[in-house]
Amino acid sequence: xxxxxxxxxxxxxxxxxxxxxxxxxxxxxxxxxxxxxxxxxxxxxxxxxxxxxxxxxxxxxxxxxxxxxxxxxxxxxxxxxxxxxxxxxxxxxxxxxxxxxxxxxxxxxxxxxxxxxxxxxxxxxxxxxxxxxxxxxxxxxxxxxxxxxxxxxxxxxxxxxxxxxxxxxxxxxxxxxxxxxxxxxxxxxxxxxxxxxxxxxxxxxxxxxxxxxxxxxxxxxxxxxxxxxxxxxxxxxxxxxxxxxxxxxxxxxxxxxxxxxxxxxxxxxxxxxxxxxxxxxxxxxxxxxxxxxxxxxxxxxxxxxxxxxxxxxxxxxxxxxxxxxxxxxxxxxxxxxxxxxxxxxxxxxxxxxxxxxxxxxxxxxxxxxxxxxxxxxxxxxxxxxxxxxxxxxxxxxxxxxxxxxxxxxxxxxxxxxxxxxxxxxxxxxxxxxxxxxxx
Amino acid sequence: xxxxxxxxxxxxxxxxxxxxxxxxxxxxxxxxxxxxxxxxxxxxxxxxxxxxxxxxxxxxxxxxxxxxxxxxxxxxxxxxxxxxxxxxxxxxxxxxxxxxxxxxxxxxxxxxxxxxxxxxxxxxxxxxxxxxxxxxxxxxxxxxxxxxxxxxxxxxxxxxxxxxxxxxxxxxxxxxxxxxxxxxxxxxxxxxxxxxxxxxxxxxxxxxxxxxxxxxxxxxxxxxxxxxxxxxxxxxxxxxxxxxxxxxxxxxxxxxxxxxxxxxxxxxxxxxxxxxxxxxxxxxxxxxxxxxxxxxxxxxxxxxxxxxxxxxxxxxxxxxxxxxxxxxxxxxxxxxxxxxxxxxxxxxxxxxxxxxxxxxxxxxxxxxxxxxxxxxxxxxxxxxxxxxxxxxxxxxxxxxxxxxxxxxxxxxxxxxxxxxxxxxxxxxxxxxxxxxxxx
Lengths: 439, 439
Prior knowledge:
The first copy, chain A, is an alpha/beta fold. The first copy, chain A, has 2 domains: 5-36 and 78-109 and 263-333, 3-Layer(bba) Sandwich (FAD/NAD(P)-binding domain); 116-260 and 347-402, FAD/NAD(P)-binding domain (3-Layer(bba) Sandwich). Chain A has 12 helices and 27 strands. In chain A, strands 5-2-1-9-21-20 form a 6-stranded mixed sheet, with helices on one face. In chain A, strands 13-12-11-17 form a 4-stranded parallel sheet. At the A-B interface, helix 3, strand 5, helix 5 and helix 11 of A face helix 3, strand 5, strand 10, helix 5 and helix 11 of B.
């Protein structure tokens, strides 16, 4: 009788979920998935939450309900603080978890290149909370502009800066163009939302550098049609409450969104392991950490070099790596040799706006409606397994037909007791606003 | 040529929205609707957001989009700080608004009967933010219970107390019963969610005192079937981080929800006007404030006595009063006499759980499935005008068929910058948790 092995998977993103799904097929494994959130996020559509087209629950699904009824899968909501490789322990605030195999799939965070203070003024787009915060800022800017009487301040409220010309930056800028040109155009009496300024700033030569120059050009023209101004070869040197500084220039803008860099998960620097660029964890060809043959790192958290290039932080990479790790653990259990990971390139795509996208796959380059249709098909296909795919399709159909956006709800940041505490002031302090608001 | 009149409506609830819709039919009126939120809330279904069955955007609709294209309606998002009756000005932080007619429809807030400190430990259910906070607490309690090893603490995490046996308390307690008995029953490995304790505390003789004793009894039995324990004639004397105190008794419970009282809108005490019970504003038979013939108060904010009883805080009252105010303003403009308001009783209803409700209307008393079908029909009917009624029906159909709840998402309370500030610590302080969490 073979002894049961404990596998701990940290992180319920594309990599972690796929690892657990594959691992669970082997009844000799007891799998524990630890995540600090209770939900798996369909990250490719997160910008749609930030831009009020979808609701948070439409792209998020409770991890527990994904694995409801899986007998050998346990879900723990908690924050992993560290790993003791010698004792094979994953450490959390409330308990240590013993592992035979460990799969790290913690993903990545926003990176501000050391400019820590910028985050409060320019949120990135990695979590639902950030998406909701961006939605709040964008919608509130229009509300404030409408009631503002000073034309200079109004202009500042109607100026949106997106920093970073990768796919996320493109999607945010394009969606801002759509909202201001179409969705909101009849809703305000004191502003013309179609005159909103949207500036996309990219430090490099051109936007979307991972695509061919031709497709990158098509994307630029698509964005310009939506009213987005693109500034390439432009470096942001400062961000504050009032706008963005570019060396000697200054853009007054109340809303700045950050899509310029991703950095390591919290955990990476706490583990004494070798890090590659962006502080991702350097892994062997079988995705293990050098010297730790039972610890795998996958997805955005891993720095895996193939043909001289590090694999990018894409969902297909994480999905394939998650499934691959399970295969190698199964091989171990059958005492067969492990295999090296090979990435099967699924191509890259980015959506620009209403019925416009670019797709690059195996030498094929597509743009416009056909590319958008492929984008839509792929995203709906991958959403299968999500209970709410029908609702999303319905929602999209609705918003593409009507130019409306269903989730234009501003909720106040962070619930707190409303009543003023007097005698008991100490027991219910009202939280201070962040510096971003106070300054 | 008649001169245009300014009408200011404060509050975008049922009363305010219906007042504006009716008023807008008269092109001689310029109407400004001021609300501190950007959305109208379908409050009767708010408990479904708190209980993870619906997403916030499914019961909220941007006020602007309701009145998109209405030429004589202007929407302002802002907090009304006061009213200067002499100068006919509505005061906000950013501007004063002049009115010829003023309609106050600010609704009501939770009331803790002077126990200000309780709110942090026992949130009420009046806004989307509160609903999201309740959802977070309820779902997090199950997560923490599952990973808790001390059986006493586990029991405390799996004890839910609902204070208040009115319709909101019933709906919350019933939904908690459903979640724990059905939705979550297969999702946890270390707890049996079906053993969750749900205690409903009511100070009076029986729950749902506005219904007949017979229906109130049926509701009690329905709740008991869902595992809810009902304690009547029980007064809460203390609420803290660890539970609830009842004179000499103590219930250890990590989650306490407040549905025991509603109180006045912020504004009421700032206006020097006569207040009725619950500090609602006492109004004349035409809904005006005594001495202010051009200032109307409607809905939960108004204290209107009919046949010796104050009208309750129900949607049908607010809707009828909103429409009625418009008629009287139209009468003024034609120099015809105003009429007194008469409430057309639409009956009362409360839902207990899956396919169970009670309805009392014109001497008719219904319960069980038939009452629930009526409840459902009425709510879907009133949702018409909401763009998302189709999605709600779809969502409900889905969750009633599968016992699942689609919106089981825990978001962290209040976005804040994640990165640790070092040198620039001052500029981005991480917010402190409330005392409720720290203690």
